[in-house]
Amino acid sequence: MPSFKNLPAAPKAKKKPVTTTHHGVALTDDYGWLRADNWQAMFRDTSILDPEIRAHLEAENAYQDQIMSETAALQKTLFAEMKGRIKEDDSSVPMKDGAYAYGTLFVKGGEQAHYFRTPRAGGAIKEILLNGDKEAKGKDYCRIAGLAHAPGHDKGLWGYDDKGSEYFTLRIRDFKSGKDLDDVIENTGGGGVWAPDGKSFFYTMLDENHRPSRIYHHILGQPQSKDRLVYEEDDAGFFMGVGGSLLDDYIFIDIHDHETSEYRILSTKDLSAEPKLVAERLTGIEYEMCEGGDVFFILTNDGDAKDFKIMQTPVDQPGKANWREVVAHRPGTLILSVNAYKDHLVWMERHEGLPRIVIRDRRTGEDHAIAFEEEAYSLGFSGALEYDTDWVRFSYSSMTTPTQLYDYNMKTRERILLKTQVVPSGHDISKYVTRRVFATAPDGEKVPVSLLYKKDIALDGSAPCLLYGYGAYGISIPASFSTNCLSLVDRGFVYAIAHIRGGKDKGFAWYENGKMDKKKNTFSDFIAAADYLVDQDFTSHDRIVAEGGSAGGMLMGAIANMAPEKFAGIIAAVPFVDVLNTMLDDTLPLTPPEWPEWGNPIESARDFAYIRSYSPYDNVAALAYPPILVLSGLTDPRVTYWEPTKWVAKLRELTTSSNPIMLKTNMGAGHGGKSGRFQRLEEIAFEYAFALKTAGK
After folding, report:
1. pTM beyond cutoff 0.70
2. Among the four residues 28, 213, 431, 501, which has the most C-beta atoms within 10 Å?
3. What is the rounded distance in angstroms from the CA atom of residue 69 to the CA atom of residue 88?
4. Which of 261, 550, 632, 675 is catalytic?
């Protein structure tokens, strides 16, 4: 096994104890001072960060720089490999809408997408509507939130975030002149929905605590201060977004947390009207909707439909009293989404972890499915931009099969392969194996694990392994094709994804049994996956590197406390590790909306005790922790920078091993890391260099 030798002196955070009491329990936080009091303002202007906090973060960066410097050549090699698998001058297959087809492309050496259109019939003519590289020039960070063309195809709405704080500014690009109009809309969620006449749009405004609390209507040419407030959500526990229909007949206001939802709709025939409530929010009842001509289709779990069902209701009487079932609930088959077109209804569903697309002829009621035969694969449905169409688009990939993009005729069932992902440096599918195995959790549940490895590696326990996990919010990690992980697999790694509870891989119950007071199942599932891979000689505990980000970073913190001896190393990206303190702070952007996921420790002594029993920061102990690499972003509004910073300080204070615990804070980015496509590869190369060094390759 490798070791990190001749380590420099690690930064030592000062202790400034602060004690608070909750439910009769005293909590002392030695490192709470690392939370900047002016964090809201700092997200917009990082220069005002407290100098003492900045100095500590910079010292941490210098420490990990020194340790990882010996991998500099390896990082360059990994970056070159990953870049070599990307077609630099790639282009999407544009999607038809009216007289045009819209898409994105990248140019050789470019970091950002360029948004273009062609005549509907196609051809070589590409009209560049927005040059992402030009917009990002001179900026350390620039994330573009897409380009939404107006119904008249004469202009487009686009947004950008140049700090990583996810406060987006909206602009309107005139397609004829190539210049932006004078309108500047600030502090938004990043997108908007055009009114049918193209003279105004609706958008979501973020408040001072980064919550999407208001929907506004902006008329072109007016200052933002004159925008009409369409709807304001008073409950800080709910997220909110605004969308539209393919027919441009309705504006949808979607209000939801992680278990409850509510829709309000506005007919585009009267933009000055108040939005109309569809069905009032009831705790635990979710629904989402799309337009289907004279009806709305509604995907819901109402009436004990745990894995969801599809209803329809008249557009002029959308209330729950008029909902009628069109696709019944089937326990164990989770319906993920629904889309409606003139003659067809389309939904995606998942059974035993595998997705499929089901299409119903709305005239005859006949159903048919699109499915594939590999043990593990991923499907994506991008649908169509038009309502009156027989053609929709979907993508397919597996861990060995590069992404294939298809157009599919819902009437004739003709399938046209539009594009296969090109790997310029080459990719021989026959050299790799993808498998789907099942680990047994402590309570007997079977946890799916997707595997990718080269056919010629010895499965005798000697192979290193990167084991990835997430397990929260019902998000399922697809077994899709990734060119990046080939840099590990080609060096003899087994690449594994543990589909643990907290996701919806095996239905909604899989999610329910990995949240709230069942959260610890997520952690024990992941450890069970590691044990299974060792028991079956895929790897050994001293060769497993665990990786997870955000809520998956919390998973990393938990397994580090529960079973540090079972992992050779841990990579925790923007890790949500200070769960108890964050859930006790209702001023933070995500705290109130997150209570249905984790519990409310402010109101509930039981929730307080349960979260405290697993929260990684609160459970750091005198243990022999493996090498740990922690990644953070200074302007991250989702997992604030002080969470990983505090966690590292406490880990380093208490660990009984000599293994390094490193923190790398991106001082110019947020939750998603750097914004450019190749800049992101540099970050992955850094993580993989750590994994290779830790696992002895």
Report:
1. yes
2. 501
3. 28
4. 550
